[in-house]
Amino acid sequence: MGYDIDRFVGYVNEGLLCSICRDVLEDPLQAPCEHAFCTACIHGWLVHHSNCPEDRQIIDVSLLRPLYRYMKNDLNRLQLHCKNREYGCEMVCSLESIDRHERECEYSQIPCSNAGCTVQVERRHLDGHLAVCEYRSRECPNGCGYTILSAEDTQHNCVAELRTELELLRSEMICRVEEAKHEMESRLDSQRRHMVQKESILQNEIEELKSQLSRMMSDVRSLLAAERQHRQELEQAELEKREL
């Protein structure tokens, strides 16, 4: 939707009106047929149609272009009243600067910044409202450090609040201790499994060494037996040689 034409001071050229909403162009786009539209208006139109609402020529979103520079300049120079005119703002400025003014306008309706408060007040009255807002918060005057809302003044009990805070801290501490305990147990279990695995590997290596040692001893005995047999054969051959 465009800017309400009733807000403008003086004559507004017909070419600066949206062909769909008939208000003054807002964030304008132009079709190849040179008809201009508000961006929101033409996008909404093209959801259900595929042609220009003025001359029915075929158009597509990809064919839309920014407004001609001279038309954009004419549009930006138009003078209009602030949207907060009904609340008392008498500012009249160019369309080019109206958004900046309205963002800072003292007559703008803005929400209260206190959580839970649904009141909207003029920007110029915000400080006064915050000073009396029933949802404003402040620190307990008795020194317990608790932040209370004005609406809770009569119900606030320092001892009860401190007891509640203490219980929360105790619960948080218990949770942290339990988390640390579970983490330590997990680490110990992991290290235990690692040690058991290493022990199993070492045991297998020891068994393999024992097996190798047993084979070596068996080979040594075989060699000793063969050496004795060989010596006996030599002695027998020596005897036979002497007899001959």
Automatic annotation (TrEMBL):
Annotated TRAF-type domain residues: 101-144
ZnF TRAF-type: positions: 101-144
Which Pfam family, an example, fits this chain? Answer: zf-TRAF
User: GO biological process: what's one of them?
Assistant: regulation of canonical NF-kappaB signal transduction
> Is the keyword Nucleus assigned to this protein?
no
Keywords of the record, alphabetical order, are: Coiled coil, Ligase, Metal-binding, Zinc, Zinc-finger
Question: Could you tell me one molecular function GO term of this UniProt entry?
Answer: ligase activity
Coiled-coil positions are 192-243
The record ties this protein, via InterPro entries, to: Znf_RING (IPR001841), Znf_RING/FYVE/PHD (IPR013083), Znf_RING_CS (IPR017907), Znf_TRAF (IPR001293)
- The RING-type domain is annotated at 18-56
Q: What is this protein called?
A: RNF41 ligase
Organism this protein belongs to: Brachypteracias leptosomus (short-legged ground-roller)
From which lineage does this chain's organism come?
Eukaryota, Metazoa, Chordata, Craniata, Vertebrata
